[in-house]
Amino acid sequence: KILILDFGGQTCQLIARRIREFGVYTDIVPGDIELEEHLTDDVKGVILSGSPYSVYQDGAPVPDKKIFDLDVPLLGICYGLQRITYDLGGKVAPLATKEYGRSKISYQNKNDLFKDIPDGFVSWMSHGDSLDVLADGFTLTALSEHNLPASVCDVNRGIYGLQFHPEVTHCEFGTKILENFACGICGAKKEWSMETYIAKEGEKLRERVGDKEVLLLISGGVDSTVAGGLLLKTLDPNKVHFMYIDTGLMRKGESEEVSENLKKLGAKHLHLIDARDRFLGPLSGESDPEKKRKIIGNMFIEVQEDEIRSTLSGDYFLAQGTLYTDLIESGKGVGKNAQVIKSHHNVGCKAIEEKREAGLIIEPLEFLYKDEVRELGRILGISNTIVDRHPFPGPGLGIRIIGEVSKEKCDILRDADYIYVNELRKRGLYDKIWQAFSVLLPVKSVGVAGDARDYSYVLALRAVVSSDGMTADVYDFPMKDLLEISALITNSVKDIGRVTYDISSKPPATIEWE
Ligand code: XMP
Fold first, then answer.
1. Assigned fold of 2-185
2. Which of 319, 366, 380, 425 is buried most deeply by CB count within 10 Å?
3. Read out DSSP for 74-111?
4. Could you tell which of 299, 512, 514 is best to mutate to test the pocket of ligand 1, judged by most ligand atoms within 8 Å of the CB?
């Protein structure tokens, strides 16, 4: 595998994914971590990522000094290159004008990093500092359009550096450069595929679990369903239990769909918990979004606590559909002090913490990215309607009913949203959209129904395109479809008299309304 040191650069995840795409496994660790335990025999090379910091700034992340005495090759990207230069005695200085965007590369002294790549390819730059003096032993490999060092190396020590970002899609031959490094210079083998993952992870799971029982908490989303599929494929289905909590804030038919799907995958023990009253009670009368989120999150923990303890006992394993990005986001990375915009509910009750302390948690997707989970789901035979499902927030309809939540409003929103999403599927629009849903507004407006005056709710439709939910653009909805869907909703859901389309991007708006 290739080990990546994360110095907090925006595109660090992309480096890892690009390399996995051509079949070499990657692991990301914080850039300033002690390397001892991470430098296992299977590490064939190390990459130092970019960073929002300058090397000479206070608080700039510094790698373990061991990094320069390794037997395996090193590649510094942007800050990573500047870090190497600075730490080995070279000079890094701010530029009068930042180099940003496309820049043509010209070779000065080509090496294997650029094997089979023609001179003059277009790279992608994003830096305000540049190398003033190279470190001892380094030579200039290539220059940018502005005659700044674009790549340097010390071939004898196996240390390479790029000022530009090969992981960004705008960079021509970017993947080829990463492949030249990982497979050519480091000699890593292309052995990473979903099939090998299933085989290896399956073996590990069987060994760890033995003949103990496993309980998987399932939300109905892609991750937990795929985790369930993997457990059923690798372990004895008679030993695998599934627990699903119906909060009353789920979409129409969702609970039935979840249980049907699990049965199709071979599930034998399904524990469907009807907790609808426990959620709707405490929510009544509350209209503040953060308080609603807290109520739902806390109740989730309370219900889970009760149900986990009463479902199984003894030293069984608890499984969760945690992804690689969840682990990194929960604070393993560097410089991730993001501001809390909304308190996401991260489920973690005492019973789960106890299991963790006892070493009885299994997270069979913990090394996978979302797109890899989708691929795994397809290989396991999970239907596309689940695998390609849009994200659905933990607090569910509770944050899509603006203001006070009631069962009546949940039912109205369920009916409307069902029509909306079904129509998107029928019209072939669902897969063009990253996330689409309806929002029930706490506003009534006047209309006419038959010959009578009508006074009913306003519904907002949302549809966005995005790659990770961090930023989002409004989906350019075909007007004809929008008009037809609006008519279908107002004709069939009697409490909705008016439909609007949300045309705000993120930022400044968020994807959800609360
Ligand atoms: P926002 O509204 O912050 O949403 O732009 C970004 C993405 O996160 C989802 N979201 C949540 N997911 N628990 C979740 O699991 C939550 O509390 C939560 N709140 C928002 C949202 O649907 C979008 O995909």
1. Rossmann fold (3.40.50)
2. 319
3. EEEETHHHHHHHHHTT-EEEEEEEEEEEEEE-EESS--
4. 512
